[in-house]
Amino acid sequence: MKLLENKVALITGGGRGIGRSICESFAENGCNVAFTYNSSKEAAENLVEELKKYDVKVKCYKSDASDHDKSVELIDNVISDFERIDVLVNNAGITKDNLLMRMSPSDFKDVVNINLGSVFNLTKSSIRIFLKQKEGSIINISSIVGVKGNAGQSNYAASKAGIIGFSKSIALELGSRNIRCNVVAPGFIETDMTDSLSDDVLEKWKESIPLKRSGKPNDVGNACVFLASDLSSYITGQVLQVDGGLLT
Ligand code: NAP
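The joint structure predicted for all components is written out below.
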């Protein structure tokens, strides 16, 4: 029996990067996968085709995770297609980096709305499903920047630290209903988000990582499989850093 056999997961921002890898790791472990995209339609449709080899049900949905009404509609659509949701992974996120001196109010609001607002929207919209099913696992993708802070990323750090406080509160509120809520805080993972960094910056990062390599999207995918599976059924309210030891 595979680790996520017969479960249904909903992953936001699944078409690219870390989200894509979470979808792949879940499907490989027998999970039926519903995932969203916002702008990457072609990549999302390709992923649906690609995951068919795992013999699980897969469907993608266009949905802006920062829009509350769209999130309610999304949950209704997923339930009508899949009948249940066992795991919610809030992965969608953006960066708009700048020093505070140069950061516009809209750059601050956009990042907080998409990164943290989306976690509120999707978690609130799916709670009634988890309560009805009397179980559920919510996994929120934060960042080590949300734990430590980072110069030039005050908007991003605030949104990612907010995710940690939100998740711990949900774990306390809903633990008695068998609904778990954990955070994965990736370190430096190679995706489009980190692609724009210069070779110099990349080398400096790698040098400071105890495991001496950057992370791959599937390093995060594997951590999510654990938190989605029954292997973690006594774990809630935790922040799992997937960072090669960077913050240690
Ligand atoms: P990425 O390659 O830039 O992908 C971002 C994903 O978020 C895309 O699938 C994108 O979908 C989706 N997204 C953005 N805005 C959205 C919206 N309004 N509604 C729905 N989906 C939206 O970034 P990544 O590196 O995979 O990052 C994924 C998550 O991991 C983010 O939360 C990020 O903060 C976090 N993280 C990444 C790193 C890293 O080193 N890469 C480190 C720590 C944390 P579309 O393309 O369809 O718009």
